[in-house]
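Lab notebook, bench 4. Still working through the backlog of constructs that have no structural model yet. Next entry is a single chain of 232 residues. Request: give me the structure tokens for it.
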Amino acid sequence: MAYTLTNLQDDIRNFTEVSSSVLSTSVLDTLIKNAENSIYRQIDTDQNVFYATSNAIIGNRYITIPDNLRAIRYVQFKDQAGNQFYLEQRDTSFMAEYYSTPDTQAVDIPKYYANWDEEFWVVAPTPDKTYEITISYDKEPETITDTTSNPAPATNGTYLSNKYQDLLLYGCLVNTFAYLKGPQDMLQYYQGAYEKALYSYAIEQQGRRRRDEYADGVIRTVLASENPTSNK
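Model written out:
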């Protein structure tokens, strides 16, 4: 069963046998968002991959980071002739050594990029012309508690709540029993259930979804098999 926010809240209260007088909507919203964030940070998935385009400006080495960006996957530049090339990521100390005079007129085709601060990343050399930028990045995870998302409220269901209900529920129950400070045996039980669900989620997201049966072959399980012997 796919979860809506209301269904998930009801199941958390039913599984813990605690009413809304203790597990209020605001408390559950926090516990649910914490579970969603924990899953997001632990497993690299396709759920939050996003693509955005912008333009590098002549003589400006700073590029504004999208507001919902968590981590960059790759950066692609395209010139006006349609030639495409990818930038290599480096740290800011490398950029300072490689391009020690960024304020001069020494411009060229950008080759590297680095995270500058929470608002910008920087390229080197400084762009010598206008380039179209395409970035692939991990965006802020969608939360089922968001009542303002468009085109439909996330409270009606998210990728995680629609396809991996057990994982989301177990993660929420771990947080809820920790919030309630027990019982410890229930906390340990759901922690184990959560870890098993997270492991199978990782196998699907980082394994099966990124394999091609034609190129990689069918996934096979190694079975124990005794060597044939003659019993006399």
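Notes after review: The helical segments are 5-16, 25-42, 92-98, 159-163, 165-180, 184-206, 213-216. The chain has a mean pLDDT of 88. Flag for follow-up if needed.
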